[in-house]
Every structure is written in C-alpha cells, then in structure tokens.
Amino acid sequence: MKLYYSPGACSLSPHIALSESGLPFELVKVDIRAKKLENGDDYTQINPKGSVPALGLDDGTVLTEGPAIVQMIADKVGGGKLAPENGTAERYRLQEWLNFISTDLHKSFGPLFSPVLGDDAKQFFKDRIAKYLAYADKQLAGKDYLMGSSFTVADGYLFVILSWAERMKIDTSGFPNLNAFKARVAARPKVQQALQSEGLLQKA
C-alpha cells in the first residue's frame, strides 16, 4: 500500500493507523499547493480531488477520504484491534465519532487556514471549534480513549485535530480530559514513529 500524505495534514490520521497496524506500507509525499509528487508527477492523476490522504492499494486502485481509509486499514488488521468488528453496535459508535470529527471539527478548521479570511470570521470558527472540543472533553471523562480503554482509528484522527488546535492557538486549557488524551496518544510509540517520519517530532 502507498499512503499519499502531506506533513501534519489530515493524512497523519491514516499514517498513524498504518503505523499502529503493523501492515507494510510506503509513504509518498505530496505538495498540496502544487498538486505534485516529489518526483514532479501530477498528483491529480492519482487523486483527481487533489487532496490528501489517498491510499494506493495493491490491486492498483486508490481509496480517498480519511474516515474510509482508516476503517479499511483497521479491517485489514482485523480482530478488533483498531476498530470494533463490522456490524456491531460499537462499530457504529466508532463511525459516529469519525463523522463528528470529520464534519464538525475538521471542516471547521478549513477557514482558519485561509490567508484572506478576516480575524473576526476566524474567531467565529475558533469559538465553534471550542464548542465541539468541549463536547469531546466531556465524552472522554473517565476514559483513556474515545471508545473506552482501547485505542482506535478515531483516536488518531482526533489527535491530529488537537495538534491543529495547538497550531491555531485555540485555548484548550479548560479541557483536562482532552489534554490528558492528547498526551496519552502522543506517547504511543507508533504515533511517535509516524510523527518522526513526517518531520514533526525530533528523534531522541
């Protein structure tokens, strides 16, 4: 498998999932602005959407959209290691989390990366993000991870979003459960491995 990624982007979520999975994979860096691979090839020939992540499969097909990719990775591992088994109530709960992170949290960050949006508008989206983070903080009370005591692909995705919150200087000091969660995920060896691979964490 080949994961097409951009350092620190939402593609870090499936990168974490792949690292945790133990499955063999190759990283291919993408310049999102130029829509080019490092060798100069046109990335839109692989993913016409021009966005990351994209996962090149062994049969030559390409899967896009992070929530779909991470569930495929989890299902390739099987055994409920990174996601509850298909058809279970817990799997639907995982999908609920993935949809919340994708449509509410992730999408709310988009305007913050805009160079033309004014500060007042950006503050509106920061306030919205804080409201969603408050919800996640409450749901994490008494839990190690979103689904309870076991790490899942939803946790990797939320971790990426929390790293964006730090970058955008969104105050999370009032969310002790989220901050403990972020530190817990960051300490996982496979997460550190993914961060190092993307140049986001210095090697000790």
Question: How would you describe this structure to a colleague?
Answer:
InterPro entries: Glutathione-S-Trfase_C-like, Glutathione-S-Trfase_C_sf, Glutathione_S-Trfase, Glutathione_S-Trfase_N, GST_C, Thioredoxin-like_sf. Its EC number is 2.5.1.18. This is Glutathione transferase GstA. This protein is an alpha+beta fold. It folds into two domains: about 1-80 and about 190-195, 3-Layer(aba) Sandwich (Glutaredoxin); about 90-190, Up-down Bundle (Glutathione S-transferase Yfyf (Class Pi), Chain A, domain 2), CATH 1.20.1050.10. Helix content is about 50%, strand content about 10%. It has helices at about 10-20, 65-75, 90-110, 120-140, 155-165, 175-185, 190-195; strands at about 1-5, 25-30, 35, 55, 60-65. The chain has a five-stranded mixed sheet, with helices on one face. β1, α1 and β2 (about 25-30) form a beta-alpha-beta unit. α1 (about 10-20) runs parallel beside α2 (about 65-75). The protein is globular. The mean pLDDT is about 95.
Question: At the first level of CATH, what is the class of the largest domain?
Answer: Mainly Alpha
Terminal Cα span? 28 Å
Give the percentage of residues in beta strands: 5-15%
| Residue-averaged pLDDT | 96
The count of β-strands is 5
**Numbering strands along the chain, what is their spatial order in the largest sheet?**
3-2-1-4-5
Q: How many domains comprise the coordinates?
A: 2
What is the general shape?
globular
Low-confidence sequence ranges: none
Organism: Rhodopseudomonas telluris
GO molecular function: glutathione transferase activity
Keywords: Transferase
EC number: 2.5.1.18
